[in-house]
């Protein structure tokens, strides 16, 4: 019985070896042993790495300057007040109705690198946005590989799920465009990593909250708060902040 078991194992091993040889013979690769297989894997990996480096170098040639995130001119709404200076009579804006506003405190850090404002974005509003958009924002380096893999699997089975981090969304909205091409996506990945190296998490979060669209012509959390709830962002309730946090994922739903 032992010999039979041994012979069966040996036969299976021979069959697997023959199957492997047949597969590689079809590819024009003959006499492939374990040593040659390892060399082939190393060669393919090396060639793939060179190809990836070449592609990244090609993409980086016309890559936008990451500093443009803070050096660019951001369109804001012009507001005309009454003579008391308390009531807005008219708002003048183009395609983007936006009012820039600071945060009340840091979220991922102590916020010491920011110019904070006690009447600015409350902490719970930032927390709601992070929970809805990118729960690992404070720990990743611009890309969330687990989230990306999960999104790919979900899309393969028919569920439309995004895998972009908050930093990637910021790059798409503030520096690049929404064009759906492989080249633009590659630039987005490179710039996301670079932004994480140049700016703190709280700096990126504050810019994001002033940049993202909230439906219609409302850009940034202050403009969205004023137009949806007719109040300033520092007057938001927790429920209202949660509602605002859900809008960027489906802006057309709220039009």
UniProtKB/TrEMBL annotation:
GO terms for cellular component: outer membrane-bounded periplasmic space; plasma membrane. Residues 117-254 form the Glycosyl transferase family domain. Keywords: Cell membrane, Cell shape, Cell wall biogenesis/degradation, Glycosyltransferase, Membrane, Peptidoglycan synthesis, Transferase, Transmembrane, Transmembrane helix. One of its GO terms (biological process) is regulation of cell shape. It is an enzyme of class 2 (transferase). It catalyses: [GlcNAc-(1->4)-Mur2Ac(oyl-L-Ala-gamma-D-Glu-L-Lys-D-Ala-D-Ala)](n)-di-trans,octa-cis-undecaprenyl diphosphate + beta-D-GlcNAc-(1->4)-Mur2Ac(oyl-L-Ala-gamma-D-Glu-L-Lys-D-Ala-D-Ala)-di-trans,octa-cis-undecaprenyl diphosphate = [GlcNAc-(1->4)-Mur2Ac(oyl-L-Ala-gamma-D-Glu-L-Lys-D-Ala-D-Ala)](n+1)-di-trans,octa-cis-undecaprenyl diphosphate + di-trans,octa-cis-undecaprenyl diphosphate + H(+). GO terms for molecular function: peptidoglycan glycosyltransferase activity. It comes from the Bacteria. Its EC number is 2.4.99.28. It is found in: Cell membrane. Its main location: membrane. The chain crosses the membrane at residues 37-59. This is peptidoglycan glycosyltransferase. The lineage of its organism: Bacteria, Candidatus Uhriibacteriota.
